[in-house]
Amino acid sequence: MSIMTVPPPAGGVVREEVIAPEPAEALANLLETEVPESVLPPMWHWVYLLERRRTADLGPDGHPTSGVPAPPGPGLRRMFAGGRVTTVRPLRIGQRATRVSWVARTSEKVGRTGPLTFLTLRTEISQGGQVAIVEEGDLVYRAAGGATPTGGEPEREQAEGPRLRLAVDEAFLFRFSALTYNAHRIHYDPGWASAEGYPGLVVHGPLQALMMAELARRHGGGLVGRTFGYRLVAPMVGVQTLTVLPGPDGAGAGARVLDGAGRLTAHSRHEAGNVTEI
């Protein structure tokens, strides 16, 4: 598979580190799955090459107040909306990798919750001089005090077909935050989650995306050489068991996540080719 990369502009953030086995072991044990020995499963790069900022750089909500990406204004609340990840080749454990990240684009819109700023962060990870992963992550910033998006009506879960279930409680959310170096307080501080308009702790959007990728890895032929596009459509809130099911065309083409009440919170589409919109 070949892919055309985009030259990063001045100001892009570069990180380099060895893809050590320990973070993969930690993630595998958190998800109750086998520990990879030689290569990382797709999407497991999210526990590597992290921005490990000083405490003084964090705002009241736990997010950095500067850097890449920086919030477009003070007092805005951040939501993870989705993204697209093309896995050209898997990252090899024990070898050095380089990540370059930069803000690719921003836009302003008005949604049901009020004014919104959309920001797309582009990341390219290379290993051995070759691009391995190209990713675009979409973030949304909204004004404090705006209405919090809610899910739709519960869906009826099909009786057959592959699925994954994952029980998430306070300890699980804390461990995933620690593993991804995510200090956003909505995931571990009930008081702060309430202040942001959520009735409980918020289940990480990247965790839901990771579980959809796991369904493709375990039951859908994998994601190497493909683009994994995902979208978070509603917050998942509270201690519960989430369910990952195949999309309409099967686990090899996409997936969806239902919360404990059966409401759709995320969906994905997997296809050959470069990073595309979903």
TrEMBL record:
Transmembrane segments: none
Annotated GO MF terms: (3R)-hydroxyacyl-[acyl-carrier-protein] dehydratase activity
Domain of life: Bacteria
Protein name in UniProt: Mesaconyl-C(4)-CoA hydratase
Organism expressing this protein natively: Phytohabitans suffuscus
